[in-house]
Design a protein that fits this description.
Elements lengths: L2 E5 L4 H13 L4 E6 L19 E5 L5 H11 L3 E4 L6 H6 L1 H23 L7 E7 L23 H20 L3 E6 L1 E3 L8 H10 L4 E4 L5 E6 H14 L5 E4 L4 E3 H16 L10 E4 L14 H7 L7 H14 L1 H9 L1 H9 L4
Parallel strand pairs: 1-2, 1-4, 2-3, 4-5, 5-6, 6-10, 7-9, 8-12
Antiparallel strand pairs: 9-11
Helix pairs in contact: 1-7, 2-4, 4-5, 6-8, 6-10, 8-10
The protein binds nicotinamide-adenine-dinucleotide and 2'deoxy-thymidine-5'-diphospho-alpha-D-glucose (DAU).
């Protein structure tokens, strides 16, 4: 029976990926390895936590000895690596944590897998989940392709770029079977409300200012999170070992236009007069080194494996708003830190 370890499974994307994989592949065991940082919340997984093919292990990928012992004991044959510090603003405030988890943690995982697999690569795979931010910033024109040279600007993207290079180095040097994907901005349920969309939903609901950095002219390419999970699943099943796949939504939005659309949806959903939410838009100091535009060319994934996004953005955004409004308890727990106290107590001795 196959055994897959998914790191960072208690986070935003990891929890969607686990839900998909645990339900789709009942004969495969999935182990969720997560440190439960502020961003890791097992409430994201309540609907699958009792499934027989799912297990949670609390652990820190920065601890190399722990990982080696874990791999020896569990004999995973597949690693899907999502655990990371993921928020750009936090990386500007505290870069070293990003170096530790994103770079050292990734190399520790590669080492643990290499030690455990011991040159027997048959049936093994190390899948590394990365970001389009490694490619840097675009002007008005052009797209990031898989061959675009790396040019990271934030401590977050520099740490992810470094981790990507290490994964490729383990493939080229030791022959480890690897896959990589670089994805654009995800949105949807269970995203921590420090990221633009859930932060804005939360603030609008509470009639608080919506902080828009600079003039709101920066452009991001948004993808429904379940489409990212579907792409990872497809690449894992059918991707060519050693290759990189760009994943994106073909869906570029200026931040200010996105926020205005969100305001319109929120006014409707909350039964407030049109224009109420837009009145909360507040332009604030720009993010340091703020990348102007990201745009992914996902045609390699589309033509080679047939993947394409399933949802139109307007529909996905409305679904996202509906989810946050229907899951006030989740949002309250996250914003108050209640979830953290609960799970930290429950796993205190691990
Ligand atoms: P997230 O911040 O929501 O979740 C990260 C998870 O990793 C959390 O559960 C956290 O507890 C865990 N973690 C952090 N440090 C750890 C450590 N030292 N040991 C073990 N677990 C640890 O992140 P996300 O938005 O779900 O992103 C997941 C991955 O996808 C990241 O690698 C990120 O770089 C990448 N990515 C994210 C996006 C996006 O839009 N969110 C887009 C492209 C790629
Ligand atoms: O592109 C993929 C990346 O997308 C992922 O690798 C990262 O993990 C993920 O956090 C995300 O990075 P961004 O920096 O693009 O996401 P964020 O939600 O922080 O910001 C989106 C845009 O909105 C960005 O241009 C900054 C702006 N912004 C953000 C916040 C939090 C604001 O204007 N105001 C805000 O309060």
């Amino acid at each position: 029976m196959k055994k897959v370890v998914i790191t960072g499974g208690a986070g935003f994307i990891g929890s969607h990926l686990l839900r998909r994989m645990v339900n789709r592949y009942p004969d495969v065991t999935f182990v969720n390895l997560d440190k439960l940082t502020y961003a890791g919340n097992l409430e994201n997984l309540l609907d699958i936590e009792h499934k027989p093919n799912y297990r949670f292990i609390k652990g820190d990928i920065v601890d190399g000895d722990f990982l080696t012992a874990l791999f020896d004991a569990e004999q995973f044959d597949t690693v899907i690596h999502l655990a990371a510090e993921s928020h750009v603003d936090r990386s500007i405030a505290n870069p070293i944590e990003f170096v530790m988890t994103n770079v050292v943690g990734t190399v520790n995982l590669l080492n643990a897998a290499r030690h455990c697999w011991n040159g027997n690569w048959e049936g093994k795979m190390f899948y590394h989940v990365s970001t389009d931010e490694v490619y840097g910033s675009l002007g008005e024109e052009g797209f990031f392709e898989e061959s675009t040279p790396y040019d990271p600007h934030s401590p977050y993207s520099a740490s992810k770029a470094s981790s990507d290079h290490f994964v490729r180095a383990y493939h080229d040097t030791y022959g480890m079977p690897v896959l990589l994907s670089n994805c654009s901005n995800n949105y949807g349920p269970y995203q921590f409300p420090e990221k633009l969309i859930p932060l804005a939903i939360h603030n609008i609901k509470n009639s608080k200012p919506i902080p828009v950095y600079g003039k709101g002219e920066n452009v991001r390419d948004w993808l429904w999170v379940e489409d990212h999970a579907a792409a990872i699943d497809l690449i894992l099943q059918e991707g060519t070992t050693g290759e990189t796949y760009n994943i994106g939504g073909f869906n570029e939005w200026k931040n200010i236009d996105l926020i205005k659309l969100l305001c319109t949806i929120m006014d409707k959903k909350l039964g407030r007069p049109e224009g109420t939410s837009a009145g909360l838009i507040t332009f604030v100091r720009d993010r340091a080194g703020h990348d102007l535009r990201y745009a992914i060319d996902a045609s390699h994934l589309n033509t080679s494996l047939g993947w394409k996004p399933s949802l139109q953005f307007e529909e996905g955004l409305e679904k996202t708003v509906d989810w946050y409004l229907a899951n006030e308890e989740w949002l309250d727990h996250v914003t108050s830190g209640t979830y953290k106290q609960y799970y930290q107590q429950q796993y205190a001795d691990r």
